[in-house]
């Protein structure tokens, strides 16, 4: 069973590394080893690499590496788009090469050959829509309409001008330094799409995540049914129980069945594990963004609210601490006997009463929030009417 345990360990390590790299900055992983691994993968390892290059090859090679980094990370480029096309094409090729010979099978009909191709084609179509659609670019001609659509809350958004575009910044917008444009209802810049995710294409992005999760789930289940069909067609359980005398129970049969599958269908099992891991990541990513959409919040606003809440909490704690100190000094002069150690120990700290309330004026209810994603303001007739009024 050494090979089986090696594959299990390899899968777990791969899952931890992938989750740490993609999701290490999520608030749920704050202070955990996932966040530390993410920091090492994204900053620490690269810093050590730059030091190694500078020590061995000199400053010119370091400048070359930094130039490549600037192109890959700070400028629009199709590298991750190409990687996506390669991943989905190669994965589908290996699935077709290793599994289609068993379709139709005991549990799957021949139509799944065509369903799988259609599913991948729809996924690529959603990828193209998200990558090449306008995320909601703000310019001089439509800035007044976006200002009318998204009022300032004077908390995390206030009236100001974009120093780069030289136009007023509507609430919920942000100037993307990579794309060099202001984007309405800015969520984040997605390297996989080589595009910003904003007011107009959030719906395509959400559909992309959900559809690819369903593709991975479908692929995992389909390959599992192919393997189950092979077990049934080759009568593996009967052979193990009748000819090898293994007791017909799950605990006794499972290790032998797994060993037989790994020896005969290791490619299919690796594909199934890969799809399952990617599917879980996509499910988490989709769930996170779905939660944001349901509360009418963006990723950019999440960080803004976090900074605002931390600042307000520190400010209130400072006021409460000052007031508590003032009262304690006054109490010491008025009280004849000091508090006992037990009473002082169990006395409630005034800092526990500090509460900071998040008031998101853009959260107008579940139905409205979903409608705003599916039918953005800029696609509605009222948006064009605001242009006529402002002109």
UniProtKB/TrEMBL annotation:
GO cellular component, one term: Golgi apparatus
GO MF terms held by the record: protein-cysteine S-palmitoyltransferase activity
Residue span, Palmitoyltransferase DHHC domain: 158-306
Record EC number: 2.3.1.225
Residue intervals passing through the bilayer: 6-28, 79-102, 114-132, 204-228, 269-288
Topological category with respect to the lipid bilayer: Multi-pass membrane protein
Catalytic activity: L-cysteinyl-[protein] + hexadecanoyl-CoA = S-hexadecanoyl-L-cysteinyl-[protein] + CoA
Pfam families: DHHC
Entries under PROSITE patterns matching the protein: DHHC
InterPro entries according to UniProt: Palmitoyltrfase_DHHC, PFA4/ZDH16/20/ERF2-like
Superkingdom field: Eukaryota
GO biological process, one term: protein targeting to membrane
UniProtKB keywords: Acyltransferase, Membrane, Transferase, Transmembrane, Transmembrane helix
Cellular localisation: Endomembrane system
Family of this protein: Belongs to the DHHC palmitoyltransferase family.
UniProt xrefs under PANTHER family: PROTEIN S-ACYLTRANSFERASE 17-RELATED, ZINC FINGER DHHC DOMAIN CONTAINING PROTEIN
Domains as described in the record: The DHHC domain is required for palmitoyltransferase activity.
Name of the protein in question: S-acyltransferase
């Amino acid at each position: 069973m050494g090979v089986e345990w090696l594959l299990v360990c390899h899968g777990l390590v791969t899952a931890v590394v992938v989750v740490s790299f993609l999701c290490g900055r999520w608030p749920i992983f704050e202070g955990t080893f996932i966040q530390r691994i993410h920091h090492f993968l994204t900053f620490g390892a690269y810093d050590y690499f730059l030091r190694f290059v500078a020590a061995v090859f000199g400053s010119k090679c370091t400048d070359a590496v930094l130039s490549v980094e600037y192109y890959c990370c700070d400028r629009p480029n199709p590298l991750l788009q190409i990687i996506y096309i390669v991943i989905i094409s190669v994965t589908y090729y290996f699935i077709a090469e290793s599994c289609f010979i068993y379709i139709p099978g005991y549990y799957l009909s021949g139509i799944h050959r065509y369903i799988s191709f259609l599913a991948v084609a729809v996924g690529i179509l959603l990828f193209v829509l998200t990558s090449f659609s306008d995320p909601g670019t703000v310019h001089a001609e439509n800035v007044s309409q976006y200002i009318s659509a998204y009022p300032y809350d004077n908390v995390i958004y206030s009236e100001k001008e974009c120093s780069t575009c030289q136009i007023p910044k509507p609430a919920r917008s942000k100037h993307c330094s990579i794309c060099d444009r202001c984007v309405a209802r800015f969520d984040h810049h997605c390297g996989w799409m080589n595009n910003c995710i904003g007011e107009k294409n959030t719906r395509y992005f959400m559909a992309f995540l959900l559809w690819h999760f369903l593709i991975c789930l479908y692929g995992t289940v389909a390959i599992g049914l192919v393997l189950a069909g092979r077990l049934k067609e080759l009568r593996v359980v009967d052979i193990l129980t009748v000819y090898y005398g293994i007791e017909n129970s799950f605990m006794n049969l499972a290790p032998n069945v797994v060993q037989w599958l790994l020896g005969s269908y290791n490619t299919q099992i690796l594909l199934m594990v890969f799809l399952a891991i990617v599917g879980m990541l996509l499910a988490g990513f989709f769930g996170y963004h779905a939660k944001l959409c349901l509360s009418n919040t963006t990723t950019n606003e999440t960080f803004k609210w976090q900074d605002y809440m931390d600042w307000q909490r520190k400010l209130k704690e400072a006021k409460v601490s000052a007031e508590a100190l003032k009262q304690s000094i006054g109490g010491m002069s008025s009280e004849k006997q000091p508090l006992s150690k037990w009473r002082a120990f169990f006395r409630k700290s005034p800092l526990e009463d500090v509460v900071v309330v998040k008031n998101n004026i853009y959260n107008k209810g579940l139905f409205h929030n979903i409608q705003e994603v599916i039918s953005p303001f800029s696609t509605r007739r009222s948006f064009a009417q605001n242009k006529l009024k402002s002109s």
